[in-house]
Design brief:
With 87 residues, the protein is mainly α. The protein has helices spanning 5-18, 26-33, 37-49, 73-82; strands spanning 53-56, 68-71. Helix 1 packs across helix 4.
Length: 87
């Protein structure tokens, strides 16, 4: 696909930290970026595997990997450690 999960992950993590109104519901996040689940899910997986977000799974989350995504203390560390990168 034409998108980059690493770059998308950094964008999401940064926006989660910098926008107090950032949604936690997957459908609202997808709508915010005008992304399909197939683009959003790899970015979340990238963040989750690095411990940079909390994902709450549950019935009815399809087509998304979770029903809610939350920033953690590690989200800030993730963003700070990658601010200098051109992803």
């Amino acid at each position: 696909m034409e998108w980059n999960p690493k770059g998308d992950a950094l964008k999401i993590a940064s926006d989660m930290l910098n926008d107090e109104r950032f949604p936690s519901a997957p459908a609202k996040i997808a709508q915010r970026y005008d992304w399909i689940a197939r683009r959003l899910n790899p970015a979340w997986t990238y963040l989750y595997r690095r411990g940079a977000i909390e994902m709450l799974a549950g019935i009815g989350s399809a087509p998304y990997l979770s029903i809610r995504v939350l920033a953690t203390e590690e989200t800030r560390r993730f963003v700070r450690s990658r601010q200098h990168l051109k992803i």
